[in-house]
Amino acid sequence: MTDFDVIVVGGGPAGSMAAEAAARGGAKTLLLEKDRDIGYPVRCGEGVGASGLKQFIEPDPQWIAATISRVRMRSPDNTKVDFGMKDAGYVLHRRLFDYALANRAGNAGAEIQTRAYVDGLMVEEGAVKGVKYQYMGENRELSTKIVIAADGVESRVGRMAGMRTATKLRDMDSGYQATVGNVDIDQEMIDFFIGSNWAPGGYLWIFPKGNGMANIGLGVNGKVAKDFSAHDLTHKFLNEHFPKASILTSVCGGIPIAKTLKTITKDGIMLTGDAARMVNPVTGGGIITGMVGGRIAGEVAATALQTGDLTPNGFKDYPARWQKAEGKTHDGLHRVADAIFEITDEKLNKMAHRLAKIPPDELSLMKIFTAVARQKPSILIDVTRAFAGV
Amino acid sequence: MILVKDNRCDFCGTCVAVCPVDAIELREADISIIHDTCIDCDICIWVCPIDVLSSDEKKEEVKHD
What we know:
The complex is a heterodimer.
Chain A: E1 4-9, H1 13-24, E2 29-32, E3 47-49, H2 50-54, E4 64-74, E5 80-92, H3 94-107, E6 111-113, E7 116-124, E8 127-135, E9 138-149, H4 156-160, E10 172-181, E11 189-194, E12 203-210, E13 213-221, H5 230-241, E14 246-256, E15 265-266, E16 269-271, H6 287-307, H7 317-342, H8 345-355, H9 365-375, H10 380-387
Parallel strand pairs in A: 1-2, 1-9, 2-6, 4-11, 9-16
Antiparallel strand pairs in A: 3-5, 4-5, 7-8, 8-9, 10-13, 10-14, 11-12, 12-13, 15-16
Chain B: E1 2-4, H1 14-18, E2 24-27, E3 30-33, H2 43-47, E4 53-55, H3 56-64
Antiparallel strand pairs in B: 1-4, 2-3
């Protein structure tokens, strides 16, 4: 007998979805969160697409900060390209959203423990058999049949199992974000600044959060992060564009804009969410994709427990279903990101001048990225697959 | 040797994610470099969003200049 069937490490959206799915599938499930709070601190821009969200949960006014219908993209010379979104978007209150998802996992039967810092795995003959963790300074051990590692960008639990999770600099954005008040912005529009002046190799975002507030942050690509500080750039931007902004929260964080890890399962363990690098390599968005991955991992774990095959063979539906759902698209988007890296500020300006002449209701993300593909035709198929209908 | 300006760290884990040798320990509000494992590649210094990490060797290089 083991203490649990499934232990999920990490109480973000991916971990909670995994715990919920495993518990619903009949597994005795425990979710461990290292911080004292589920959902806090929030290291996230908090933007999601409406249809992506609704496949998991009905939007609740409690954790919807703003509803988005328009997008603005700005080139380095501040040319504005405006268009409407076919699929509406939301900016979330992650603190409450993550609570809602964890609560749902609990209602499905999963146990949840906070302040539980996993610092080792129990491994027998190469197979993961349990977790070692600290709770309030006390060392504890629990045996389990399956560990689902949803421990975020750090992805150390996978490393403890001998998996390769270390991320290349090209695949990591160095991010910083301030949640600010007293800013006069369009609360239904997300605003992006592209180019090397504010976010070399990445982009700067303004996501409204309701009541005159916004998340304003940026990511600098790891390849050039040596020469730039995400913190300094963010504050420079705030000083220039929103000198009266009050800074209510400021956080930093890494955004893993990689392809999904080649190997996301090993004997007795599955990786999911940011820990498995399930983040959109162009947008850096990882909430919904993490939920997709987490739910599949939890479902496959429950099925594997019934068959008794707790090896990568028993888990093989997990990478297969993930690849089909998002992974293949992410591989293509990673190539698109490579093409975007190569576009100079001068070219971005020229593209923006052309796109700005198109009426907003005739413009779409698909059209914008088709313009990008014109710079590198080999990515046209990737663009078409990723942005069809968007 | 990689140094941490402890009281400025935000504990975001970006350095942990890029460390090729898993030489950084991070808990809720505690970060430490495992110097025996660290290979002084410095990429954690570059990727830190708030420039909390530094290298003492770099300072020596600057002195030589």
